[in-house]
UBC core domain-containing protein (Salix dunnii), 101 residues
Amino acid sequence: MPISPAMISTAPQTNVFAQFEFVTDPSDHFYLSRNTNSYGECFTNASSRVHKKIMQEWKILEKHLHHSIYVRVYENRIDRLRAVIVGASDTQYHDGLYFLI
């Protein structure tokens, strides 16, 4: 059965995606093959200052994201994240999707 405009307008509005989410498989990330910082270090050392700072930033993002921003972070690659910003209503960017990788 095809979907009619009446069905769409009466459909309940639900937020299908979590605003901040952990994902386990980074294999589709464009920069996956780059696994070190400029000093040749990987971000897997949990006792490093960088690792601790990234964890602090994740906690801030998890609690204080604007309703139009969605972030995905990778459990095993803390140096990678993906975000999308949905353009604000009543602007020329309305419903535009702006991806940050």
In short: Residues 49-64 form the longest helix (16 residues). The mean pLDDT is 79.
